[in-house]
Amino acid sequence: MVARLAGTGLVLMTLVACASRAPAPTPQGEVGIVIERATGSVQVVDPARHASVGRITDLGDLSHAAVVYSKDARYAYVFGRDGGLTKIDLASRKVIARTVQAGNSIGGAISRDGRLVAVANYEPGGVKIFDADSLTQLSEIPSDYGMEGKRAKVVGIADAPDDRFVFSLFEAGEIWVVDASDPKRPAVRKFRDVGKEPYDGLITTDGRWYIAGLFGEDGLALLDMRNPDAGVRRILNGYGRGTEKLPVYKMPHLRGWATAGGHAFLPAIGRHEVLVVDMASWKQVGTIAVHGQPVLVVARSDDGAMKQLEFSLLNGFQRGFPLVSERVRNEVMRPEGTSDQEYR
Amino acid sequence: MTIGPIPFLRRRLASLFLALGALTQPVTDAVAGPEVSAPTAARRAEILKMVRQDCGSCHGMTMKGGLGPALTPAAVQSKPADSLTATILHGRPGTAMPPWQDFLSADEAAWIVQQLQQGLPDGR
To answer: What residue ranges do the domains of chain B occupy?
Structure first.
């Protein structure tokens, strides 16, 4: 049973990478990239031909990695576990620039205009902002919190409109919004006491809403990026209704979780459930019972309408990718509390 | 045999899985100390895979840390083996460290601690 789980991380990363495929200037059309975690390399693949079109090696420790693309989708920025940040030309499959900018990092974001790349770091905790052309460092924002000179691990970094980045501080329970319109002198706005242990975050594709998932309590933190003065508010508070949560063997990913058809699909921590939220009211409108603790949900749709969801499930050492398609729209969107056992 | 890009990709994928498999070769008997009854070779391979892939999702596949602390020899050598074993089995309430006793015996947890303190085999 243990062996069955072994590839999960790879598969997840592959899924994430493929989900983020983007058009590139090759005659073949779209390409995607696959992170080869164990070997620290990246493959460029052509999904239409089901073919590998190249491999880039020597990218350091990619045992955890994340990728963003330039606006024209020609370049990929790969964030490695060891703080490595590499800019890859997808057309020539060559490394354009590379820097090892921290000791341990989790991921990054690219500004909406494509000029800036921001990296979220665990060690030393904080965010660094780079020029997207040259990978020259422009500024650093240490994630200092509390009174003891500690730095928090930065999670859930996302790009927001108006040259902003938004991210969460795991140990501190804070969300910070950085205005990088002057990238050498970024302005930081801190939202404190947003909830215990935010573990990841997502921003809706329109850039309006930032959501941080909380590990330390049942609920999520929501920030309206159009009106940050309104502050961070709690959604889905106490979704477990006081019941004991199960041990969590794999922290879910929030980035890449599905928002589709006016609903957001969010993981219930320590429960075999996906929470369905109405994005107009931010109230829970249903749950989808799944076989294990949800790790990743991807909406497979180009037009934003929910057509199909994939679940990656991890229940101890069980995993699988059952498809939940039109049934979700037709049958699961029901008032809270009704049975949805048929989807197990 | 089909001709074209698909076998090519398949070969690439195969080499990818081979690369992963190489991480989990059974260790030699020399690493098991007298105080811990070592699991069988097949089970050791399973456990090492689990340590890298599942413990690794928080502690890093290379054990250099992530959301959880680093578990490199330098990080864990000075800590008492018994308390590390207890942490694996029972987790650490109030933190993200879950209990693993549903999946590991006490001897297996103690063996993992020994491996971590010596450095996981296969260098990665």
So the answer is: 40-124
Residues in chain A: 344
* Token representation of residue B31: 């690493």
Q: Where in chain A is the domain with CATH 2.40.10.480?
A: 1-100
Tell me the DSSP string of A31-89. Answer: EEEEEETTTTEEEEEETTTTEEEEEE------SSEEEEE-TTS-EEEEEETTSEEEEEE
- Quickly name the fold that domain A1-100 has: Thrombin, subunit H (2.40.10)
- Higher-pLDDT residue of A173 and A2 is A173
Which stretches of chain A are DSSP H helices? 2-5, 8-19, 326-327
Tell me whether B29 touches chain A (CB under 8 Å): no
Going across the sheet that includes A164-169, the strands are A154-160, A164-169, A174-179, A187-191
CATH code for the structural domain at A256-344 = 2.40.10
Top residue of B20, B67, B90, B101 to mutate, by most chain A CBs within 10 Å, is B67
Longest dimension (CA), chain B: 58
Q: Which helix H or strand E contains A313, and what residues bound it? A: strand A309-314
Q: Which of A146-155, A271-280, A302-311 has the lowest mean pLDDT?
A: A302-311
What homologous superfamily is domain A103-235 in, according to CATH? YVTN repeat-like/Quinoprotein amine dehydrogenase (2.130.10.10)
Read off the pLDDT of residues A238-250 as tens digits, 9 standing for 90 and up: 887 778 888 888 8
Residues of A whose CB is below 8 A from B92: none
Q: How much is the average pLDDT of A258-269? A: 82
Confidence of residue A261 (pLDDT cuts 50, 70, 90): confident
How far apart CA A108 and CA A86 sit, in angstroms, is 12
Q: Work out the number of other CB atoms within 10 angstroms of the CB of residue B9.
A: 19
Q: How far apart are CA B91 and CA A94, in angstroms?
A: 44
Residues of chain A with CATH 2.130.10.10: 103-235
Cβ contact (<8 Å) for A248 and B9? Answer: no
Candidates A277, A274, A258; CA nearest to A344 is A274
Q: Indicate the fold that domain B40-124 takes in CATH.
A: Cytochrome Bc1 Complex; Chain D, domain 2 (1.10.760)
Nearest residue, CB atoms, B60 vs list A50, A63, A250:
A63
* A-B C-beta contacts closer than 8 Å: 103
Query: How far from A211 is each of A121, A180, A248, CA to CA, in Å?
Result: 19, 20, 20
φ, ψ for residue A74, nearest 5 deg: -80, -35
**H-run or E-run covering B90:** helix B81-90
pLDDT of residue A265: 85
ipTM of the predicted structure?
0.77
